[in-house]
Please model this.
Amino acid sequence: MSQLSGVPILILKEGTEDKREKEARYQNINAIMTIAETVRSTLGPKGMDKMLVDGLGDVTITNDGAEILKGLDIENAAANMVVNLAKNIDEQIGDGTTSVTIFAAALLKNALELTEQDVHTQPIRHGFKLAADKAIEIINKIEEKISKDDIAILKNAAITAMNSKEISMLKSHFADLAIKAVRQISSETTFDKVGNIKIVKAPGKSLKDSEVIQGLYLEKSKASPVMPDIIRNAKIAVVRKKLDVVKTEYDAQIQIFNPADMQKFLDQEEKMLMEYIKIFKGVGVNMIVNNKEVSDKFAAHLAKEGIGAIKNLSEDNLKAILKAVGANLVDDLSSLTEADLGYAEKIKFQKIDNDEYTLFEGCKNPKAISIVLKGGLKKILDTAEVALHDVLNVVAKVMDTQLVVAGGGATYMELAKRLKTYSNEVSGKEQLAVLSFALALEEIPKVLVQNSGLDEVEKITLLRAAHKTDADKWIGIDTITGTIENTFKKGIIEPSALIKHVIKAGVELSNLILRVDRIIAAKSSSKGGLE
Ligand SMILES: Nc1ncnc2c1ncn2[C@@H]1O[C@H](COP(=O)(O)OP(=O)(O)OP(=O)(O)O)[C@@H](O)[C@H]1O
Ligand SMILES: [Mg+2]
Model:
């Protein structure tokens, strides 16, 4: 820094640009508010859809926050941070991307207003932190403990998550599918391995025909066309071994000088193949799953014995198969025993249109399964898949934590009310920040009301007034019927973890942005902002 006639000036490296604190803040917050504006109208059951058009002109119609944000081409670094926040909640909770974006933007908008009244960012950040901690404390107190076997609650939570999705006309059916699937793959203690539920999209008449199967559905064809189409009482060997003697595991060159040697080599090859088949037959295998190559010759031999096979599976599919059929992975065939084999009542190789599938059905207590989504249009199947992702995660989260709160804005209204009371205990400028935080929480119910075309001022005033005593904690608004009531009783239910995450992530982002007092963009960087 140098001094020139009493005015401090910053000397920056050539090619850098400095923006004054206020301007930097304004620019960042504005960028985040713009992102929030994009998804705002999609929140809740009455939310609108967005049409995403990519560079190739391909169109996706969705109202899923995560999908919309993924599709945006964003240059601004602060805006990117809110997108990452949404991605993070999608990974951790599987739902709530729109809510977290709206809340973070509301917090920052309110903070900006405070700074315009000359409140420094330090007490704002401190006040926000106090409010967030208090909000979590309140949720811990008011949340409802449920049993993981409470199917009615699980179903309500699943339906709430689906209320805002396009497949909402089939929500009961999809809720049942999701609950069945998560319960199937769960052990007593883990409910969050939703990755073990493979969603497969298959052509069919209607989404209503979608189903959970007691096993897996893979987009894989049989290793040889002459293998049987159906294998019953399948005893399945899952191996990681090249079943191909010509191309050995290592690159060896075999030099053959005369026809007799050639014959000897072929005999040798034949002998090895027969050796393998003997091992498989010895333990009663009638199906082989391999993530390596199976030669055509070997596959033909297997077919002759009535043994089926699929080959070159991805690691991911291999893991799923092991969990589905209950097999042990075998690398060394000589150690294969009956105990390593998995089981499926039926394996079916199917060709639908131009795609080939292998279906493992009737597995015993499978820990990886498929949900087969059926429908005529690819776009509908894609939309259903996105919605199912949210629902599966919500069901798993509720089973895992066994803690829920009411949706339809009820929890946000109750938190806002209690934080307003709490603000009286907070001194200094922090008190204003706590109040701003409470108002930012009300933004979610406000947007739900706005999106349903109801009168925002009227409904929010009614909601505030309705939260009189602790017994009123779950009064929210059902925007499908337009009524203010106990939404918990109505079955509008969300995982408590979702709201906690929205609050924690929102305050983290707002405080990070409020700490920034300069945007310095180096010339070499193609992106603007904070990176
Ligand atoms: N019948 C209903 N009446 C009012 N609000 C509802 C109803 N059903 C669900 N909601 C609310 O809708 C909100 C969720 O909307 P939405 O699913 O569009 O956004 P999100 O979960 O934040 O983001 P996304 O699902 O896009 O990741 C929650 O606050 C939930 O309580
Ligand atoms: Mg949602």
